[in-house]
Design a protein that fits this description.
single chain, alpha/beta, Ribosomal Protein L13p, Chain: A, two-stranded antiparallel ribbon
């Protein structure tokens, strides 16, 4: 048996549309990360970007389970003494809800140049309006 390796000419990228209103953040992020990697395709190759584009609207209307609004924290460290910044999910959602969704998806992708290329294929908007009307081919069931 021969192992199949996807070639650039074999990759046919689609655009998926996701309405995040009422969706749970983690379940949405795992499904979108899988589509960005291309795992839903038969030509999936782990070291080649075979994924599709995803448009997410209503990012400000996502839900989380349990007490995560108060207890989930995002940390960033500048490298200097006293440079640790800690922000909880509730303040991040008020400040920029698209960043919360992007970080959830990005942390489920590989942490290498391939993963950085994959995250560029997701377009996230906090409202219901987006400039990609022509590309929307099929809504994604999550």
């Amino acid at each position: 048996m021969k192992t199949y390796v996807a070639k650039e000419k074999d990759i046919n990228r689609k655009w998926y549309f996701v309405d995040a209103k009422g969706k749970v953040l983690g379940r949405l992020a795992t499904r979108v990360a899988s589509i960005l990697r291309g795992k839903h395709k038969a030509i999936y190759t782990p070291y080649i970007d075979t994924g599709d584009y995803v448009i997410i609207v209503n990012a400000d209307k996502i839900t989380v389970t349990g007490d995560k609004l108060k207890s989930k924290v995002y940390k960033s460290f500048s490298g200097y003494p006293g440079g640790l910044k800690v922000t909880n999910l509730e303040t991040m959602m008020e400040k920029d809800s698209t960043r919360v969704v992007r970080l959830a998806i990005q942390r489920m992708l590989p942490g290498n140049p391939l993963g950085r290329d994959m995250i560029k294929k997701v377009k996230i908007y906090s409202g219901s309006e987006h400039p990609h009307k022509a590309q929307c081919s099929e809504p994604l069931k999550i």
